[in-house]
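Reopening this one. Same input as before:
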Amino acid sequence: MVPTTQPALRPPGERRRAPSRILQPQPFHSALICVALPALAVSPASGQLTGEGLEGYYRDGRRILSHCEVRAAGGEPLVVQGRLTGADRARFVGTIRRTGDRGPDPEIRMERLRTADGIERITFRSSSAQPVRLPVEVRLGTDLAELGAVAAGIPGPELRPAVHGSGLRWSGAGAHAVVTAVPSPQDALASAGLLRWELDLPPGGQRTIELRAVLQHDPAQPPGAPYPGRPRQLVPSIPSPRTGPAVPRSRGDRPPCPWSPAQLECEDQRADALFAGSLDDLRGLLLRDLNAPTDVYVAGGFPWRCGLAPAEALWTARMLLPLGTRLAAGTLRTLARTQQAMPGRDFGRIPGTLRDAGPHCPASCTGVEATLLFPVLLAEARRWGLPERDTERLLPAAERCLTWLRTATAAPTTGRWSYVPDPAPDGPYRCETQAHAHRAALLGADLLDASGRPGAAELRDWAADLRARFRSDFWLEDRAGGRPAALLFRDGRPLPHLGSTAAHLLDTGLLGGGSLAPGLLDRVRTGQLARLLGGPAMDSGWGLRGLGAKESGFNPFGHRSGAVRVHETAIAAAGLAAAGHEKEAGALTRGILDAAAGFGHRLPEMYAGEQRTADGVPVPHPAACRPAAVAAAGAVQMLIAQAGIRPDAPAGTVAVRPLAGAPLGAMQFTDLRVAEEPFAVRISRLGMGVVEAAADRLQLGS
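Same output, byte for byte:
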């Protein structure tokens, strides 16, 4: 072959540029992920950390150990089982064969217990009738890369270690990773990153090696500095709490669990496993606010949102209100400290990032959603039993959110109210944003009235005006009964595509007396939306698609254009149940339960919206968080919605209105919280609810 063109001339010494590398998420959905933020451990089923993909121990958003490979008796153990035993720990069991062993039965077995805190215990047990001398070596290594870079597929080069005490130490990027071993190794080869032992196992005896990996920051260089030689703009920014010099994290250092030890016993035992697994995931995502360590919130999820994600933190706290109000109080206080306090159009707004909204819509702002969720969470937390002193303390921040709502919808040129724009003042006007705003206005007015503050009448007038205009402008009539528009552009043009964001129109909120706030849609149109969401174009059989299968641009893996988003399916199921459309609510709930079984009852943030088949299993989205706060909390909300609990703690009442027909069979919830007291309810197979435990001062309603 002869080239037909002359090669380009380059100055002497100039090097050819390497082709740009395509960044893509690293696979991790088949990995065993131990989470106890700000600590993480990602392992393959074998337990051998080889540095592939996201494997390794992490602390404060940095990988402190990428390699941890065990060899014994000259070879690798044969791992026969690897599984999670909790959200923050994993167990691996293997066998070891030695030269000269006879028969198929191994005499030496190995157990590795790994926790997210950076502690690993490797135990060797002998069943031999003779003493055994077992040579063991562990290869260690790290790149001290940031989690965002590793998750995007651009890890750093492996660093050279140095012998340090009873282990090894690596330095780079303004940080140091230190691994110590107990007992101390007989030999340490820094050049190869090896620690070696000669273990003497008596007949029927055992020996344990404990490894501890910690991260130490260089005081001369702030945490989070980019790795030398790596362009900062190529590394995705992933929030991760910084705690300064790190030490092994004990269980006493972890945030206390801010919700009750609730339990579910259901005739469909998959519901029990999903309920327990979701709460376990959420415990692993708990974080303290560094500015006020007593305030606790839930991080967004691994690996993309390991820090505070305002909208998701609020959604999680709201969905967990039946388990107590402490998480809501901590989340609200944390976000109140971030609120915009400078006078201007953004006064009262909670900061948030832009997020992609699919192929048909411009990006939306999580800050707008969080600002509108703030007064809703405070108002509903009060109904569930948030103490009045906490309500009074948080009320000024909620009032600032409502001030932003009035400012954002004021139209000074016409003197009329407008829709809430998202993300910019010039629009567009999203369907779900108007639902958030309408709910915020009604629940905010209820909150202001209860506290004797002015402004409630104006908010109710605005909400009534919004309902009238929304039913005219956003509803698109057709022969099938019509549908809501996804959004209106600034010039009034509607976007007719139907997606899962329409589920927010069913989420109305809880007012005084246990009543539900009116929705943006009337009863007839709510019924039509229920039929659309329950139809095959939207219900994949595993949950609600982000975009209808018949819409242009549908993509089963589109995170806003076809994938199933668990928390929106949960919102739809709870809203449908509250509106009396129990058939559709039950179908969505059973679909999520079926999908959860395919993920080991640890739901990812989203998965492919492919049509369910008899022998199929749901497929995770490559960029989905797992564990994910809103997915785990959504599963909890969806299950508790079966009981239909409607409290009004200030008035001393609570009502239970379970779904007729009990789609999941008989069930019992214990250790819920209403008015900060234990609450238990039993639902029979016929859908009859019986309250078995409640605060003495609560009056039970129907």
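So the earlier flakiness isn't reproducible anymore. For the record, The chain has two domains: 32-252, 263-701.
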